[in-house]
Amino acid sequence: MIHGGAGAIGAPERFAPSLRAIVETGADMLTKGASALDAVTECVRLLEDDPLFNAGRGSVLNADGAVYCDASVMDGRGLSAGAVAGVRRVRNPVLLARLVMERTPHVFLIGEGAERFGRDQGAVFEEDAYFLTPERQAQLARAKARSATTLDHAATEDGKLGTVGAVARDKAGNVAAATSTGGLVNQMFGRIGDSPVIGAGVFADNDSCAISCTGIGEQFLRTSLARIASLFVETQGMTATDAATAAIAYLVRKVKGSGGLIIVDRNGGCGAAYSTPGMLRASFENGKISVAAG
């Protein structure tokens, strides 16, 4: 299952072809025996390369007019995880997060340190112009005119969305999750949301499920929502759908939260819930692909 962000979604039909093609890629990989980790990594990489979504190339601009990206991956087989935050010019932050997981003893690298590690490992970097799409530049100008920090899923932004992510269960029964984002329009330099934070914007454990979140990052950080959702599966035996619904209810009850999440549980069931008007998502379950926005 993949998502392209939650919010007030304008013209959802323009996102559907990308969502379908990307979830089909993940489904094909899993059908052929690929690991859940490989499937979620590839799906998020493709979402990062698509300028429609707020991650990688399509990332929103901060108050300085620059792109800073965050990403994370987690493998449910042994709770291995990797994350990066505040990185610039990295074409695919999710690939860098996976390198952190697989080639360092650490979980989380930030800023210049993460970039230096990426260059040492052969990660692909792009020039600033690659990320400065006309749509994102116009979006920042509107936010500055209002003197606002604009949430990319805000209704005033006509459906601009906040995060991308993927969750999967493979033939061996292993689950994995990945999340990536460009953050908030006009955000302060140095601001980090939930997307790279294990247990807040992403989580995966074979004993429960895999989760990727999207929404107002501060609210997901304050509630550790991904971990909360996983505990609903692990300790209460909830299905993916029930756990997603319960987690969003918890988010709203605790902090009047705005956002959504996708889950694939240990049995392969897919679920999603959101407190926003809609959430872009696509799933492959029981041999069937579905795409939805609301």
What's a quick, concise take on this entry?
The protein has 294 residues and is an alpha+beta fold. The protein has helices at 16-31, 36-49, 93-103, 111-120, 128-131, 134-145, 217-223, 225-236, 240-255; strands at 2-7, 69-75, 80-87, 108-110, 164-169, 175-181, 202-204, 209-215, 259-265, 270-274, 278-285, 288-292.
Cα gyration radius (Å): 17 Å
Low-confidence stretches: 156-160
The main sheet comes to: 8 strands, mixed
N-to-C series of helices and strands? EHHEEHEHHHEEEEHHHEEEE
Distance between the termini: 15 Å
Question: What attributes does this structure have?
Answer:
single chain, 294 residues, alpha+beta, eight-stranded mixed sheet, four-stranded antiparallel sheet, 9 helices, 24% strand, globular
Characterization of this structure:
β11 and β12 (288-292) form a beta hairpin. The radius of gyration is 17 Å and the shape is globular. The two termini are 15 Å apart. The model is unreliable at 156-160 (pLDDT under 50). The chain contains nine helices and twelve strands. The protein is an alpha+beta fold and 294 residues long. Strands 4-3-2-6-5-1-11-12 form an eight-stranded mixed beta sheet. The protein has a four-stranded antiparallel beta sheet with strand order 7-8-9-10.
What's the structural blueprint in terms of helices and strands?
Blueprint (H helix, E strand, L loop, with lengths): L1 E6 L8 H16 L4 H14 L19 E7 L4 E8 L5 H11 L4 E3 H10 L7 H4 L2 H12 L18 E6 L5 E7 L20 E3 L4 E7 L1 H7 L1 H12 L3 H16 L3 E7 L4 E5 L3 E8 L2 E5 L2
Parallel strand pairs: 3-4
Antiparallel strand pairs: 1-5, 1-11, 2-3, 2-6, 5-6, 7-8, 8-9, 9-10, 11-12
Helix pairs in contact: 1-2, 2-3, 8-9
